[in-house]
Write a structure and sequence with these properties.
Blueprint (H helix, E strand, L loop, with lengths): L1 H23 L8 E7 L8 H14 L5 H10 L4 E11 L4 E9 L5 H7 L5 E4 L22 H27 L1
Parallel strand pairs: 1-3, 2-4
Antiparallel strand pairs: 2-3
Helix pairs in contact: 1-3
Length: 175
């Protein structure tokens, strides 16, 4: 019963995700789409950087699924689904890997869980912006996974630029 609704909602979120990527990223998205599933609580980290690194390590180990196989798994969890987020995990030439990350109602505190137990799941299309993303400038959607070297290099250059500016201001104020 929920499977058609689930498939429609995921397809709608996927379409929205593709529109977001088209606007904000320069990557071409392969028409060969595969999916991985993630329970939000499987990722550990004390800050966003650690969480991102742990998420990438775990996602690289996952076996990709077809959309129908992913929907089958989610359909089994439907009554406990609180939210479903779609992210582009990797955009390669021959395939694009979409991460379907879900949140369970049962992971919330008991009081809140009773308030939301009858709510339908929410569906979202999301992507992470790099630290140095500038408004109106397209960036590499793979910055979290395969584009990390470029991201770290740009972060290093940005921090160096800030330090140089700071040192220049100190030097000018002394002289």
């Amino acid at each position: 019963m929920h499977q058609n609704n689930l498939k429609n909602n995921i397809q709608h979120s996927f379409d929205n995700l593709l529109r977001l990527v088209e606007i904000h990223c320069w990557n071409k998205i392969s028409p060969n789409i595969i999916f991985i599933l993630s329970d939000f609580n499987e990722f550990k980290g004390s800050n966003s950087s650690e969480l991102r690194i742990h998420r990438n390590k775990l996602n690289n180990l996952k076996i990709p699924l077809t959309l129908d196989a992913a929907i089958q798994v989610l359909n089994n969890e439907y009554d406990d689904l609180y939210g479903v987020n779609l992210y582009i995990f990797k955009a390669l030439k021959k395939e694009t890997i979409i991460e379907i990350q879900y949140y369970r109602k049962s992971n919330f505190e008991a009081d809140y869980c009773t308030k939301i137990k009858n709510n339908q799941p929410m569906f979202h299309a999301k992507f992470s912006l790099p630290f140095l993303a500038k408004k109106g400038v397209q960036y590499d959607i793979n910055w979290e996974s395969s584009g990390r070297l470029r991201y770290f290099w740009n972060t290093f250059l940005h921090k160096l630029k800030i330090k140089m500016k700071f040192l220049k201001e100190i030097y000018q104020s002394v002289h």
